Amino acid sequence: MSARIDAHCHFWRLSRDDYGWLQSGDPTLASIRRDFAPADLRPLAAAAGIERVVLVQAAPSDAETDFMLALAADNAEIAGVVGWVDLASPEAAKRLETLAQNPTLKSVRPMLQDIADPDWLLTAPDTGVLNALDRLGLRFDALVLPVHLDRLLRFAERRPDLPIIIDHAGKPALGADADDPRHALWEEGMARLARETDAVCKLSGLLTEMRSDQRQSEAAALAVLRPIVDKLIGWFGPKRLIWGSDWPVLTLAAPHEGWVRITDALLDPLSPDERAAILGDNAVTFYGLGEAAA
Hints:
This protein is α/β, with parallel strands linked by helices. It has helices at residues 38-48, 62-74, 92-99, 120-123, 127-135, 149-158, 181-196, 218-236, 256-267, 272-287; strands at 4-9, 50-56, 78-83, 105-108, 139-142, 164-166, 200-203, 241-243. Helix 6 (149-158) packs parallel to helix 7 (181-196) and helix 8 (218-236) crosses helix 9 (256-267). The longest helix is centred in the C-terminal third of the chain and has 19 residues, at 218-236. The model has no long low-confidence stretch (mean pLDDT 96).
C-alpha cells in the first residue's frame, strides 16, 4: 500500500494567545491546553506508518498561517498547510498572492463552526478574495456543522471551479438523541454535496462528536461509526474520502493509535487499492502534495 498520509493535524503555540476556542477556560479542553509541536506527533505517526501530514489552522489569524508555514519549512513531514485569511476583507486577495508564493500553502479555512451567522459563507466573503483562490489554484477546507451543509452546497454551486473538502465529515451529531433535527440535516446535506458537487470529504474528527459512553471501548465506537462511514463511502465513494487524525484534538476522545485501529477496521471491507486511496493517495491528489522527499 502507498505510504499513509495524515491529512488533518494541528500544532499550536499558546503564547501567541489567539486560540480563542482553546484558551476560553473550558475545563474539557484542559488536557490539550499546552503547546504541541511536530516532535510530539512524530513517534505516533511513525508507529502508524504515516510519512507526511497536512497541517491545518486552529486560530483565525494571519500569525497562525505564518507560524504553520514556518514549521513546514523546518519539518519535512509537513507536506501541506491549510491556512487562514480574512475572506471578508478585500485586502486578503493581496495577502493570498503573497502566501501562494510558498508552494506548501494548499488551502484556506475559515472557522465557520465558530461564526454565529450560519449564512456567513454566502454573504460575507469578498468576491475578489474568492476569485484569488481560484486563480492561485488554492482549495477550500469547510469546517462546518450540519446547519451549514445547505449553505455549503449553494456556495459550491457558485464556485464550481474551487476544490472543496468537508472537514470532519460535516460533524454529524453522533451524541444527540435520535429525534435531533441535525441528523436529517446531516444526511440530506452530505448526500446532496456528494451527488451534486465534486466536494471531497475528510474521514476525521468523528470520535470527539460522540458521547463518552459511545466510545468507552473501540468495539462500541465501531458500532456507532460503521453505519456513518458506510453512508459516506456510499455517497462519496473511496476516491473522494480522505483520512485524517485531527490530532491532538483527537486525544480528548482516544489515543492516536486507537483512531488508527478504528479506521483500519472500518475500511477493512474495501479493496487494498480503495484503502490506499482513502489513507493517502486521495490526499496527494486533492491537495497536490507531489512526491515525498527521498
